[in-house]
């Protein structure tokens, strides 16, 4: 009887060892499968990352090329603007105020000139109100008011260059400092205004000694003023 029990115990122990060995082999297979899956996931992630980096590089290259193209066109526009003697710029006073503030600094739509006046009863800014970042040097009489808020401003080619530069910065600048510091809620108008002036300059015919100036109707609201 005792011998039978011993044999049975041995058989049970052998069975346990066999089960443990089988379990160990199964766990080894699972661990190997987990490692293979982890390697496959890592390889897939690396491949995806490489594709994204390649796509990002391609997109950046396209964006850089587009920017270079636009900037070359912008420089061409500036060269044309710099050759102009003067332009009669007709637009709504709000449009001119937006342009002037960006290009020259402090401005107000009710001003008739950009020259500081000695008397408070004379239309125009007082000396303490003037804060030009670039003085447009508009002498008295170069801003003519019309009805319905329209006005004509006689600007020089130099002033037009300054306006275009500031509009370009507002619409396309890649300088993060300029972008963060530009809190103008109307900044989105920079691109359309720059494009409108640029198209006008591209189609501009050279002036002459007898008629050196040009006329730019910048604001579509001009039709409502009866000045066309």
- The SSE string, one letter per element, is HEHEEHHHEH
How many helical elements? Answer: 6
Structural class: alpha+beta
Give the rounded overall mean pLDDT: 79
The low-confidence runs, each spanning 5 or more residues with pLDDT under 50, are 224-228
End-to-end Cα distance = 125 Å
Q: What's the structural domain tally?
A: 2
For the sheet with most strands, the description reads: 4 strands, mixed
Share of β-strand residues? 5-15%
If you had to describe this structure to a student in words, what would you say it looks like?
It is a single chain. By secondary structure, the protein is an alpha+beta fold. The chain has 2 domains: 1-82; 85-225, no CATH class. It is 58% helix and 9% strand. It has 6 helices and 4 strands; from the N terminus they run αβαββαααβα. The protein has helices spanning 2-82, 93-104, 157-172, 176-181, 190-202, 222-225, and strands spanning 86-92, 143-145, 150-156, 214-217. A 4-stranded mixed sheet has the order 2-3-1-4. The protein starts with a helix and ends with a helix. The relative contact order is 0.12.
């Amino acid at each position: 009887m005792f011998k039978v029990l011993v044999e049975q115990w041995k058989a049970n122990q052998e069975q346990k060892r066999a089960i443990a060995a089988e379990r160990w082999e199964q766990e080894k297979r699972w661990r190997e499968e987990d490692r293979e899956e982890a390697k496959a996931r890592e390889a897939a992630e690396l491949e995806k990352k490489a594709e994204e980096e390649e796509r990002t590089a391609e997109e950046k290259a396209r964006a850089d090329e587009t920017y270079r193209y636009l900037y070359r066109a912008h420089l061409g526009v500036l060269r044309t603007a710099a050759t102009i003697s003067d332009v009669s710029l007709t637009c709504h006073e709000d449009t001119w105020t937006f342009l002037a503030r960006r290009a020259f600094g402090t401005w107000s739509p009710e001003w008739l000139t950009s020259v500081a006046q000695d008397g408070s009863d004379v239309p125009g800014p007082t000396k303490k109100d003037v804060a030009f970042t670039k003085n447009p040097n508009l002498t008295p009489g170069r801003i003519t008011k019309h009805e319905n808020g329209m006005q004509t401003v006689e600007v020089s080619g130099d002033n037009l260059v300054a306006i275009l530069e500031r509009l370009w910065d507002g619409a396309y600048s890649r300088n993060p400092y300029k972008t963060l510091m530009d809190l103008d809620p109307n900044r989105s108008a920079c691109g359309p205004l720059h494009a409108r002036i640029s198209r006008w300059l591209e189609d501009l015919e050279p002036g002459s000694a007898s008629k050196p100036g040009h006329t730019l109707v910048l604001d579509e609201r001009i039709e409502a003023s009866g000045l066309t």
